[in-house]
Automatic annotation (TrEMBL):
Signal peptide, first to last residue: 1-28
Annotated InterPro entries: HMCN1-like_VWA, Thr-specific_kinase-like, VWF_A, vWFA_dom_sf
Compositionally biased spans, kind Low complexity: 36-52, 77-88
Annotated Gene Ontology cellular component terms: cytoplasm
MF (Gene Ontology): protein serine/threonine kinase activity
Annotated spans, Disordered: 26-101
Organism for this UniProt entry: Paenibacillus curdlanolyticus YK9
Matches recorded under Gene3D superfamilies: von Willebrand factor, type A domain
Taxonomic lineage of the native organism: Bacteria, Bacillati, Bacillota, Bacilli, Bacillales
UniProt keyword list: Secreted, Signal
UniProt name for this protein: von Willebrand factor type A
């Protein structure tokens, strides 16, 4: 019975993604960052603390709520889930409930989490050491520039970090993210928007620094939007797969129908398990045929796995390096639905660093959707990757009654929403300035 419930859950989420692709034409709130000072990472031996020790520290990093250290976050407010009619034997879209937390927009809260015991344990464990950030805002003719290339170069001429601006004209640069100790204090910053380019020497990496770069000639943004879904289909995801299919179909369909022809949307559905399963990664190329993407989602079943970690890095490698992402785009979004971390091995940690930096350079925003079974360490890794690629963190909640218990995230107060509605809003925000 539990296996059937799990499969239905994931099916709904997948269906919601498919319908989400039509929301980019509606208005969205601006993404604002408080630019408060960031705490420089301390380094420890990469040893994993016990789950009990981590859970005891969760409340330390929730400064906005003022609750005790035993609590991970304030109780969320609930807005109620919207539903759409069933198709065939699919569950209703709008069944799954979720919350969202954008760490780049809540930067002072993020810095306090990174400075807490929990942050000091998990940063070296995953080898994401130093989250000092340079925020770069790019405008041309007074309007935000999407997809401008932002590159920070160290004094020895090596590229320290590269990113692309989002639709609001903002890029986040993390030159010392993978530097265990030290790092340059001054860099060369270059920003390229179409045929226009500016370069700045001796840019200091001050904590919480924000720079504005302006060009004279206005630019017309691209209409291309790449949406990718990467889903863990191992046996532990069976409680959610069936529901995910309904949710994601709803999402992609809505985004496709609501853009009024203003956006050129491509979708790619990808699935992964673990090594020694019947497949490790099952990829599908980008397509403008939403029905084809829906059929690919509907064909999936949860099976395999066995141990807790899965082949996350292989799925990300395929998604980032082996798909034809648009060279110019308004937005490139990758939703990663998972309930388990990658295997913790030295070569895999290095691979994750490389993939994170490459995604940031290509302007691919990685947006995890944490499912039941995610532990504290996995939450940290997913948020690290989301922050450094300019993505946001989405997490399923217990309010739907579907699946197992969901980890209470170390965030401030958040609103519980229907997952499909939340995903539509997330995509809209990344498609609008």
């Amino acid at each position: 019975m539990m296996e059937r419930i799990k499969r239905r859950w994931l099916f709904v989420l997948l269906m919601a993604f498919v319908l989400l692709m039509q929301a980019c034409s509606s208005s969205a709130p601006d993404d604002k960052s408080d630019n408060s000072t960031s705490s420089e990472a301390t380094t420890t031996e990469p040893a994993k603390a016990s789950t009990e020790q981590k859970a005891a520290d969760r409340g330390e990093a929730v400064p906005d709520s003022g609750e005790s250290a035993a609590d991970r976050s304030e109780e969320p407010t609930s807005s109620g889930a919207s539903t759409s009619g069933q198709q065939g034997n699919l569950p209703d879209a709008g069944t799954l409930t979720a919350g969202e937390w954008d760490d780049n927009a809540k930067w002072s809260t993020w810095n306090k989490l990174m400075a807490s015991n929990e942050g000091r344990e998990n940063r070296p464990y995953w080898q994401f050491y130093d989250f000092r950030r340079l925020e770069v805002k790019v405008k041309a003719g007074g309007s935000p520039v999407a997809d401008a290339a932002v590159v920070l170069t160290s004094k020895d001429g090596q590229q320290a970090w590269a990113a692309r601006t989002n639709a609001a004209g903002v890029a986040y640069v993390f030159p010392t993210l993978f530097v265990e100790q030290g790092g340059d204090r001054k860099y060369t910053l270059s920003v390229t928007a179409g045929q226009q380019k500016k370069q700045f020497e001796n840019v200091e990496l001050k904590q919480g620094r924000s720079m504005e770069v302006s060009f004279d000639d206005a630019m017309r943004p691209s209409s291309l939007v790449d949406l990718m879904l990467v889903v863990d289909t191992t046996g532990s995801m069976s409680d959610e797969l069936r529901y995910l299919e309904a949710e994601l179909k709803d999402v992609v369909t809505r985004v496709s129908e609501q853009n009024n022809g203003q956006l050129d949307i491509r979708v790619s559905s990808n699935f992964y398990r673990d090594e020694h399963d019947d497949y490790v990664v099952r990829p599908f190329p980008f397509t403008r045929d939403v029905d084809k993407a829906v059929d690919q989602i509907a064909d999936q079943e949860a099976f395999g796995g066995g141990d807790f970690p899965e082949a996350v890095e292989l799925a990300l490698s395929n998604a980032i390096e082996e798909h034809e992402w648009s060279k110019e785009a308004l937005a490139r979004l990758m939703f990663v639905v998972l309930d388990a971390p990658p295997h913790h091995e030295p070569q895999i940690m290095k691979k994750l660093q490389k993939l994170t930096a490459k995604a940031a350079e290509q302007g691919i925003r990685i947006i995890p959707i944490a499912s039941s079974g995610v532990d504290i360490a996995t939450e940290h890794l997913m948020r690290y990757i989301a922050v450094s690629t300019g993505g946001t963190y989405v997490f399923l909640t217990d309010h739907s009654g579907v699946g197992g218990d969901h980890l209470k995230p170390a965030v401030g107060e958040y609103e519980v929403r229907a997952l499909n509605d939340l995903m539509v809003d997330v995509i809209t925000r990344y498609c609008r300035s």
